[in-house]
Amino acid sequence: EPYIPKLIEVNYIEGSSDKKWSSGNFPWTKKLEANNKKVFGNHSFRPNQREVINATMSGYDVFVLMPTGGGKSLTYQLPALISPGITLVISPLVSLIQDQIMHLLQANIPAAYLSASMEWNEQQEILRELSSCKYKLLYATPEKVAKSDVLMRNLDNLHARELLSRIVIDEAHCVSQWGHDFRPDYQGLGILKQKFPNTPVLALTATATASVKEDVVQALGLVNCIIFRQSFNRPNLWYSVLPKTRKCLDDIDKFIRENHFDECGIIYCLSRLDCEKVAERLQECGHKAAFYHGSMDPARRAFVQKQWSKDEINIICATVAFGMGINKPDVRFVIHHSLPKSIEGYHQECGRAGRDGQRSSCVLYYSYSDYIRVKHMITQGVVEQSPLASGQNRSNMASSGRILETNTENLLRMVSYCENDVDCRRLLQLVHFGEKFDSAHCKKTCDNCLKIKSFVEKDVTEIAKQLVELVKLTREQFSSSHILEVYRGSLSQYVKKHRHETLGLHAAGKHLAKGEASRILRHLVTEDFLMEDVKKSDIYGSVSSVLKVNESKVYKLFSGGQKIILRFPSSAKSSKLSNFEATPAKGSLTSGKLSPPRIETPAHLPEVDLNLS
Ligand code: ADP
Ligand code: MG
Ligand code: ZN
């Protein structure tokens, strides 16, 4: 059924800036510190851990935004240990739960879990022991809460005896369709707050844009909720985006050899086949590499992961199925062999590098044709999901219009991140999480900060209008790379055949550098002036995309109501825009006749057609 958000008035309280929560004078402080050392073996608290614990122990609903690896688990495991009764933890993935329970049991903290796939007898046994308070923590998957009346009755019973001390929603962004790991069953979790309004709820996530946060708080029904957040900037990660060419694998080999030879890393690939190919190639080049993806049998997957953890393998070539709950501190590089599906996902995947604080590299190989490929896979619902979002929802994901739209939108943001060769990578990522960042603090640790000395802002409205005009004149039949070819004056057979349709706009942009024209065109797509439609173009199943004009936005451009300003590097070599005034195209519409365009070297642009079998 459609999801209709019920809007409640939420009072957010910024916890991070309130000194009260870092006090060492709470009634539980001594117990807290002793248990942190004795039971968990930690010497101190990490940023915000003490504050979050104090707020939830004080009985408030708390929302925690903490980067992956920041130590979110401790903020509920410690309170569970020093509170009477039981803490219920909702977590999306059985393998994550099992991993946590293993660690808890090793520390002698009694814990158990319930999942829908468990034997009935086993579940009965756990519920019995639950009512006698044998456990401090009970983990459950969201499906279990949604579907099990028995569990609900048991929770009621505990609550009546004042033994339900806290409800924890881990990976809380799964509630939101705007997030990258949407799980429909998470949306039903609002029932917990309805049934137990006085039991404090602690929601934790490493990924939340403003809209995700709002969704989570609304769906869970949190009121007067205290928010703790900290910077998502990871100063020790060095970011760069490189063009993906046919010799991408050679480039990767060379990059690792020169920068991280024999060090530990992850290469994220789009498809299972890609993982296998990349691993094979790297092995041939003398690296200790292996692949990891969703269609390997679980034993094999576990084996590969173990080999990697023990440094018997350096490089793992994986889909996004790999990485959840992985805690290896010395991952020195994360390479994206293909375009990630969202900035959140990208940030999280990169976040697996450099947990130990040492300098690590994040390199993304980008090509526009990967965008078409990913987009097609998203439309078809065949793209491998992170395990958080996977499971029974996968087929629904593909068919639901709104989710498809969100996914496409997320992907477009990622494309615009890759094509931006001006702004600080950290800034671009952090802006996405609603965080302010001064790019001076990057200190040249990203490719864009490193190469750009200064930039100029240019009004490119006239170029934008020409590009839109060109799309219209060609009756919305061309893909963006074809539009660029025409605009920059290529004379391929196809372009030649259709040249008469383009009136004077053929080659109108020949004085622009290739990157500049494409950045402007792409800007028009990401800002919704133009829309990209994926088309199956022939019986062989190859896909291509065509550009359409969004009339409802474009009229503002032509009426002078909106200008398009972009930043360009001011180094003379890369920008000819600085002295560009939108010259009327040769043989423009008003002159009525076409003068033959002067053709310089035809631009070679990658073929967009792809054979996806
Ligand atoms: P998150 O859920 O935020 O990704 P985890 O809770 O899994 O992070 O913690 C990541 C790692 O950090 C774990 O290995 C955990 O033992 C460790 N850790 C957490 N808190 C502390 C601390 N105060 N001191 C030292 N290590 C810690
Ligand atoms: Mg966690
Ligand atoms: Zn930077």
Structural write-up:
This protein is of the alpha/beta class. 38% of the residues lie in helices and 15% in strands. It contains 23 helices and 19 strands. It has an eight-stranded parallel sheet with strand order 1-8-2-7-6-3-5-4, with helices on both faces. Strands 9-14-13-10-12-11 form a six-stranded parallel sheet, with helices on both faces. Strands 16-17-19 form a three-stranded antiparallel sheet. Helix 1 packs across helix 3 (74-82) and helix 14 runs antiparallel to helix 16. The longest helix is centred in the last third of the chain and has 19 residues, at 401-419. The protein is globular, with a radius of gyration of 27 Å. The chain starts with 12 loop residues before the first strand and ends with a strand. Bound molecules: adenosine-5'-diphosphate, magnesium ion and zinc ion. Belongs to the helicase family. RecQ subfamily. Residues 53-226 form the Helicase ATP-binding domain. Residues 266-308 form the Rhodanese domain.
Q: What is the strand and helix layout of this fold?
A:
Blueprint lengths: L12 E2 L14 H10 L10 H9 L4 E4 L8 H9 L3 E5 L3 H13 L4 E4 L5 H12 L5 E4 L1 H6 L1 H12 L3 E6 L20 H6 L5 E5 L4 H11 L5 E4 L7 E7 L4 H12 L4 E5 L3 H13 L4 E4 L5 H12 L5 E4 L12 E6 L6 H8 L9 E7 L1 H13 L13 H6 L1 H19 L5 H8 L14 H5 L3 E5 L1 H13 L6 H9 L4 H5 L16 H13 L3 E7 L5 E8 L1 H8 L6 E5 L40 E2 L2
Parallel strand pairs: 1-8, 2-7, 2-8, 3-5, 3-6, 4-5, 6-7, 9-14, 10-12, 10-13, 11-12, 13-14
Antiparallel strand pairs: 15-18, 16-17, 17-19
Helix pairs in contact: 1-3, 2-3, 14-16, 16-22, 19-22, 20-22
